[in-house]
Design a protein that fits this description.
Radius of gyration: 22 Å
Largest sheet: 11 strands, mixed
Number of helices: 8
Oligomer: single chain
Shape: elongated
Helix content: 10-25%
Number of strands: 13
């Protein structure tokens, strides 16, 4: 690109000990934690109006239809670019990231997809124990730079865990993810402000809804569901036998079946999320026992949804609409094809193709 941000030299000018290391993609080195690991479950009885005792529920077949017009994805690439030494002798990584959020919409008549909005941001994350005055100067210096049209924003990450057990890179990635989720919330606020969402023009958010901060208005999610391609197969606490893992039951889930809605309460603010699992691919068309199973989440908005449960007919309607979304597939183009919904795949593909090439991006530093 012809220019360099020269972040290491800038830090050394501030008398901050900084060490150049191999620059590499953290997404290839560290396993991202499951997003459905927080909160607690209360599922001795299903959290829906029909108190069925079966764990495998046949979703009623109603002919093809779609409830969904909008598809939201957030993506990120994270990299380690250097290490720094703090004043109290801590040796911590400097992490940079490309993050973005995008919404695609689908024409209800033609079925054609188009870009609704695409936002991008580049971040540099420093450990929070950096001197505050130095950080303010470094932040201003970084955010004034424009490298061939590429801008950067400086943020700080912190780790409250035992650093001998957890790599500090995880704390930096968590901070990057929070920035990305904040961008997703901003998009949802714009959608609600412009009244684009309704009961027949719902939005699918790619991922779990458990990332939400406690101060987010739940009403933003009235016409939003979260769909996760991956989930924690070792999740406990969902059965009377508390040691039983959810995956042990899901291996028996048949195509077109779902589980009951499970009440998931977020401890920080008592937000209630209804979560259920749905198989969208025939078992004989996939390789692994959990392939073709997605996790679906919906936030309880009304008091009756929080206390009594979700309307079973609405849950079945959403579930069948998701089954209808299983085709076309991205088979051969994405290894996660069997858990992907094609409109979400197209949104994710559009967003990721907007990121800078990794080699070009790392050479900026």
């Amino acid at each position: 690109m012809g220019k360099s941000l020269g972040i290491i030299n800038k830090l050394k000018e501030k008398n901050i000990k900084c060490f150049e290391t191999d620059r590499f993609n953290l997404d290839n080195e560290l396993m991202e934690p499951y997003q459905d690991d927080t909160g607690y479950y209360n599922i001795i009885k299903p959290h829906e109006s029909s108190k069925l005792k079966e764990f495998f529920i046949d979703v009623p077949q109603r002919g093809y239809y779609s409830l969904f017009k909008y598809f939201l994805d957030g993506s990120r690439y994270t990299y380690k670019i250097a290490d720094m030494q703090t004043a109290d002798g801590e040796y911590m990584p400097i992490v940079t990231a490309q993050i973005g959020t995008a919404i695609c919409s689908r024409n209800v008549i033609t079925g054609k997809m188009k870009k609704e909005v695409l936002n991008r941001k580049n971040l540099i994350a420093f450990y929070s124990h950096i001197n505050e005055e130095d950080f303010i100067e470094i932040k201003e210096m970084i955010e004034k730079c424009n490298i061939n049209g590429v801008n950067f924003y400086a943020i700080k990450y912190n780790t409250q865990t035992n650093r001998s057990k957890e790599r500090p890179e995880n704390a930096a990635i968590a901070k990057v993810l929070k920035e990305m989720h904040d961008m997703e919330i901003d998009l949802l606020k714009d959608m609600m402000k412009n009244r684009k969402l309704s009961s027949d023009k719902m939005l699918i958010l790619d991922g779990s809804l458990q990332f939400l901060q406690k101060d987010i208005d739940d009403n933003l999610f009235t016409y939003v569901i979260g769909v996760s391609k991956s989930f924690n197969p070792n999740q406990r606490g969902m059965f009377r036998s508390k040691e039983m893992h959810i995956a042990s039951a899901l291996t028996q889930l048949k195509f077109g079946q779902r589980t009951p809605v499970m009440k998931h309460t977020m401890e920080a603010n008592n937000r209630v999320i209804g979560a259920w699992y749905l198989r969208i691919r025939p078992e004989n068309m996939v390789k692994n026992p959990l392939d073709g199973i997605i996790r679906v989440e919906k936030i309880a908005i009304e008091d009756c949804e929080k206390e009594i449960g979700f309307d079973t007919d609405i849950i079945n309607t959403i579930s069948y609409a998701l089954i209808c979304e299983r085709n076309s597939t991205c088979h051969g183009k994405d290894p996660r094809w069997c858990n992907h919904l094609y409109p979400v795949y197209l949104t994710e593909k559009m967003l990721k193709e907007s990121f800078l090439n990794e080699r070009i991006f790392l050479n900026i530093f």
